[in-house]
Amino acid sequence: MMNDRAAKVFIGMRFIIALASSTMFTTYGIYYVTMLDLNPFQLVLVGTVLELTVLLFEGITGVVADTYGRRTSVIIAMFILGLGFVLEGSVIWLADLSSSVPSFAWLLISQVMFGIGWTFVSGADTAGL
């Protein structure tokens, strides 16, 4: 059975992830259309890249969690997800700094980071319960 400290950490972590996810999925559509000028096809590609990344990396990150521990996997996940959020928010400035890489490419890179981050945390956060 879980002790009180572990329960509090788990509930706090789940709250933060749920808040970040709901904020992300609610506001990113507006951000994509108004700030990055994405068309419907590009919006579909963004979601497809995210889901394909999850599909490809789910097993690999499961091995990492089993080999190095679930706590390590969750820590790696939070780090990668945080970097994904920072990159996603910085797409406009990155596109201005390097004109050779379009903002859509930076956006797809951030989606790959999100996908890898989610696969590190999926299952590892609840496996210890």
TrEMBL record:
Membrane protein topology class: Multi-pass membrane protein
Molecular function via GO: transmembrane transporter activity
Keywords: Membrane, Transmembrane, Transmembrane helix, Transport
Membrane is among the record's keywords: yes
Residues passing through the membrane, by range: 12-31, 43-65, 74-95, 101-121
Cellular component GO terms held in the UniProt record: plasma membrane
Subcellular location: Cell membrane
Major localization class: membrane
Domain Major facilitator superfamily (MFS) profile positions: 1-129
UniProt entry tagged with the keyword Nucleotidyltransferase: no
Cited PANTHER family: PERMEASE, MAJOR FACILITATOR SUPERFAMILY-RELATED, TRANSPORT PROTEIN-RELATED
Protein name: Tetracycline resistance protein
